[in-house]
TrEMBL record, chain A:
It comes from the Eukaryota. Signal peptide: none annotated. The keyword Transferase applies. It comes from Camelina sativa. This is Ubiquitin-like-conjugating enzyme ATG10. Keywords: Autophagy, Transferase, Ubl conjugation pathway.
From TrEMBL, chain B:
Residues 590-604 have a biased composition (Low complexity). It comes from Camelina sativa. The gene is LOC104724806. Residues 589-608 are annotated as: Disordered. This is Ubiquitin-like modifier-activating enzyme ATG7. Belongs to the ATG7 family. Keywords: Autophagy, Cytoplasm, Protein transport, Transport, Ubl conjugation pathway. Residues 11-325 form the Ubiquitin-like modifier-activating enzyme Atg7 N-terminal domain.
Length: 224, 696
């Protein structure tokens, strides 16, 4: 498979991924300004990889905010503490605004990471609330658009918890098997070069499907 | 367009809130475990914040994994968020080693100490050079690294102005500036934000000239700014989003302004953004009125406040990260995931719950026992009990996959060493070992031994009752008799595996003869015993005897080709899983490889479920066989079972001490007499007792 301009078998090389990632991030910045831009996180100290000089990394989109109603916020651990832990010395300060409980904000981080075993990109994500506490899958599913939950059931995709390959913590990911197949379908119907898909459109096409599952849509202009 | 021109009110600040990324706790735990140990000296850390970026949600002061002092290289470049939203702010972490010492920390003096540092930075001028120190903060914490839970409390020290500052007016910046000025201010802010040199400087001056040109300057340039401006505002990154209140950083900012420049009227600019650009509708401009301190009070440190509230209460926050940090939990979820993937990808009808709840009893912890245990673990089976009376011998570790050299040297009992080994492989295993010999027929016992042997029988019976599946993996024929009988009696799934030198046999016993199942499907099965599948002894014409005494050494030690035990052990487990997945379970009928379905059917998603599998590795051949239960079986026939039920221990003693008893009981004696009277030549294929299976 050439690491050049086109992809014909649904898969990407490491170099292809870097190229596709930059193209995707650029197009996103231009066409999708309702969202913050994706940033490229380079990887250093990768002792495993071969001699090729290509920079490896992943795409990161973080702190996407979804407001949800208060009931969703997770409980604090039961605090067996007295109701007031501060001594009386700190007197009431009238210059501090007393805030009402507002809606709970949920934040989401998305990483697009290259899988060298499947040779396709994989979407990793996690959710957390404003204090930093991680959100469980049940809570996350409530934040997703309802159509994506049914899409998951139908297409046998699953969110699974796995080690993030670089951060050594459990993140959720969309399982990558089958990606190769539907990318091939997409490239067969791509207008530009017959059955080939240009590398720089790979991630855009991939994300047009995958993004829907997590509620991130891309505008059609990006596909041109 | 409301202007707050009414009489000045006390200026109220919106408190700053904390946000601790999971990564911070991960990094801190490593730091504590690897480096700090019980050292609880304060740790300098860095917090990050940026201007508000959303009209409905305030920003927080965040701790990330890079907040901790680094001295090792991490394998990932520190996430390049760009510094614009991560202005670094100095802080300090006091982590205690016990919950009691956490509660006992003198919070007021810790807060005062940090407030003093801010005051000193104001007095010395450091705050002008590096204004981020105005937002210095403090965290106290207790990290419970056994339960992976963290209790913590932030304080954002704010110097209290006495009397408090009052608010003369506050309005959106777009209303304060003319449209020309606003455009220029936005442009200047965006430039400030886009330059790496200035983007993380959270306090600055906004100078607007009379021809509406705005410029942003560092605080230290204040003197230089005097005179050539039409408007001069004190700008700062405001994390707060509220339209009627400025954010917390303004507090120490006002203290600085009052102390350094003695201004009574302060025009301030709460800088907020949206979508990465200056947003002058969201940003605020306000005028504060400050009473100057005089004389002594100008020199003394003001009081301070700033402990963060938790849902309005003055209590610490806590978080549990056991699910993502406890290694045992991580192992469990990884193993579960593996099984779920199998079900999802290949076997949607696989019942994983039955596998995780089944209790397996392994009689024998040798070559077969070790392999069976490992394969059971692969299927997600968590509950395994070993019965074996032997110790790990020097020749064992190479063939018995749960043992190591240390076990031999230590003279460990196999049942004990096996349990230890399972836990080392997968900490969530529930496993126990019983060091016990299985009473065998044909090995007569003295009267002194009777009690202990009967106790062992009872123990074995209880073990079988309390498990769901029993594997017969011992190294003699006769040691399988009692377990076979007890399994038939209790109607428990029994899987039998036996090895010859270059052959093996794996089979599942049929249901017991008087199985009390009220499943309607089984009624016609129980009518005639012939419908039951046979057990290991069903095809014998001799009762199990002593096969061990008077044999030569090589016949006493079962010597087999090493490849056989792993194959037979693995097949035994696959057979069990097939039974467990089959809707009829122990009553499933036996299939042959040549069965009509020849493959997956609805009943058995895993494929056919044979009764017996026999193989010879010298031929690399494997066949499946089907055998029905025999009415004259010495282990599972109705005769024997009812005799056992009726006479209990005396039956057992007779069977153990008198080998012909069982033959008489079951009528085998009669049968043999009748057969002998015909004077036929019986051709024995082999003389190896292990493989005697004479078909009637």
């Amino acid at each position: 498979m050439n690491s050049g301009r086109e992809v014909s078998d649904g898969r990407l090389t490491v170099e292809g991924f870097s190229v596709a990632a930059r193209a995707f991030a650029d197009k996103w910045k231009i066409h999708n300004q309702s969202f913050p831009p994706w940033s490229w996180v380079p990887l250093i100290n990768r002792t495993l990889h071969l001699s090729n000089q290509q920079e490896e990394g992943y795409l990161s989109l973080e702190e996407i905010l979804i407001l949800s109603s208060l009931e969703e916020s997770p409980e604090d651990e039961s605090l067996n503490v007295a109701t007031d832990c501060l001594e009386k010395e700190e007197s009431v300060d009238h210059t501090i605004l007393v805030q009402n409980q507002e809606n709970e904000a949920h934040y989401y981080d998305f990483h697009i990471v290259y899988s060298s075993s499947y040779k396709v990109p994989v979407l990793y994500f996690r959710g957390y609330c404003s204090g930093g506490q991680p959100l469980s899958l049940d809570v996350i599913k409530k934040d997703l658009p309802s159509c994506s939950v049914s899409l998951l059931h139908e297409s046998k995709w699953t969110f699974i918890t796995q080690e993030h390959p670089y951060l050594n913590r459990p993140w959720f990911k969309l399982h990558p098997c089958g990606t190769e197949d539907w990318i091939k379908l997409l490239s067969q119907s791509s207008i530009s070069t017959g059955c080939q898909m240009p590398v720089d459109l790979y991630l855009v096409s991939w994300f047009s499907v995958v993004g829907q599952v997590v509620g991130l849509r891309i505008p059609l202009e990006m596909l041109n | 367009m409301s202007e707050k021109e009414t009489s000045p009110t006390i200026l109220q600040f919106a408190p700053l809130n904390s946000s601790v990324d999971e990564g911070f706790w991960h990094s801190f735990s490593s730091l504590k475990l690897d480096k700090l140990g019980i050292d609880d000296s304060p740790i300098p850390i860095t917090g990050f914040y940026g201007p508000c970026s959303h009209p409905q949600v305030s920003n927080h002061l965040t701790l990330l994994s890079e907040s901790l002092p680094l001295d090792e290289q991490s394998s990932v470049a520190s996430t390049s968020h760009g510094n614009r939203n991560k202005c670094p702010v100095p802080g300090i972490l006091y982590n205690t080693n016990t919950l009691e010492s956490f509660d006992k920390l003198d919070k007021q003096s810790l807060l005062k100490a940090e407030a003093n540092k801010i005051w000193d930075d104001i007095q010395s001028g450091k705050a002008l050079e590096d204004p981020a120190v105005l937002s210095r903060f403090l965290v106290i914490s207790f990290a419970d690294l056994k339960k992976w839970s963290f209790r913590y409390w932030f304080a954002f020290p704010a110097l209290v102005l006495d009397p408090p500052a009052s608010l003369v007016e506050l309005k959106p910046a777009s209303e304060y500036f003319s449209s020309e000025e606003a455009e220029s201010v936005s442009a200047a802010c965006n430039e400030w934000r886009n330059s790496d040199l200035t983007t993380d400087v959270p306090f600055f001056l906004v100078s607007v000239s009379s021809d509406s040109k705005a410029s942003i300057r560092h605080l230290k340039d204040w003197e230089a700014c005097q005179g050539d401006h039409h408007k001069l505002l004190f700008g700062f990154y405001d994390p707060c989003h509220l339209p009627n209140n400025p954010g917390w950083p303004l507090r120490n900012y006002l203290a600085l302004i009052r102390a350094r420049w003695s201004l009574e009227t302060v025009w301030f600019f709460c800088y907020r953004e949206s979508r990465g650009f200056a947003d002058l509708n969201l940003s605020l401009v306000g005028q504060a009125s400050v009473t100057l301190a005089s004389g002594e009070s100008a020199e003394t440190v003001p009081n301070s406040v700033g402990w963060e509230l938790n849902k309005g209460k003055r209590v610490p926050r806590s978080i549990s990260l056991a699910n993502s940090m406890d290694p045992t939990r991580l192992a469990v979820s990884a193993v579960d995931l593996n099984l779920k993937l199998m079900r999802w990808r290949a076997l949607p009808s696989l019942d994983l719950n039955v596998l995780s709840s089944v209790k397996c009893l392994l009689l024998g912890a040798g070559t077969l026992g070790c392999q069976v245990a490992r394969t059971l673990m692969g299927w997600g089976i968590r509950n395994i009990t070993f019965v074996d009376y032997g110790k790990v011998a020097m020749s064992n570790p190479v063939r018995q996959s749960l043992y190591t050299f240390e076990d031999c040297v230590g003279g460990e009992f196999k049942a004990v060493a096996a349990v230890k080994s399972l836990k080392q492989i997968f900490p969530a295993m529930e496993s126990s070992g019983v060091v016990m010999a299985i009473p065998m027929p044909g090995h007569p016992i003295s009267s002194q031994e009777e009690d202990s042997v009967l106790a062992d029988c009872k123990r074995l019976s209880e073990l079988i009752e309390s498990h769901d599946a029993v594997f017969l993996l011992t190294d003699t024929r006769e040691s399988r008799w009692l377990p076979s009988l007890l399994c038939a009696n209790a109607n428990k799934i029994a899987i039998n595996a036996a090895l010859g030198f270059d052959s093996y046999m794996v089979m599942r016993h049929g249901a017991g003869p008087t199985s009390l199942s009220d499943d309607m499907q089984n009624l016609d099965m129980n009518k005639t015993n012939k419908q039951r599948l046979g057990c290991y002894f069903c095809n014998d014409v001799v009762a199990p005897q002593d096969s061990m005494t008077d044999r030569t050494l090589d016949q006493q030690c079962t010597v087999t080709r090493p490849g056989l035990a792993p194959i037979a052990g693995a097949l035994a487990v696959e057979l069990l899983v097939g039974v467990l997945q089959h809707p009829l379970g122990i009553n499933a009928k036996g299939d042959n490889s040549s069965s009509s379905n020849g493959g997956n059917n609805d009943d058995s998603p895993l494929g056919i479920l044979p009764h017996q599998i026999r193989s010879s590795v010298s031929q690399f051949s494997q066949i499946t066989l089907l055998g029905q239960a025999s009415n004259s079986c010495t282990a599972c026939s109705e005769t024997v079972i009812s005799e056992y039920r009726e006479r209990g221990n005396s039956f057992l003693l007779e069977a153990i001490n008198h080998p012909t008893y069982l033959e008489d009981l079951t009528g085998l004696t009669e049968l043999k007499k009748a057969a002998n009277s015909f004077n036929l030549d019986w051709e024995d294929d082999d003389t190896d007792d292990e493989d005697v299976a004479v078909h009637m």
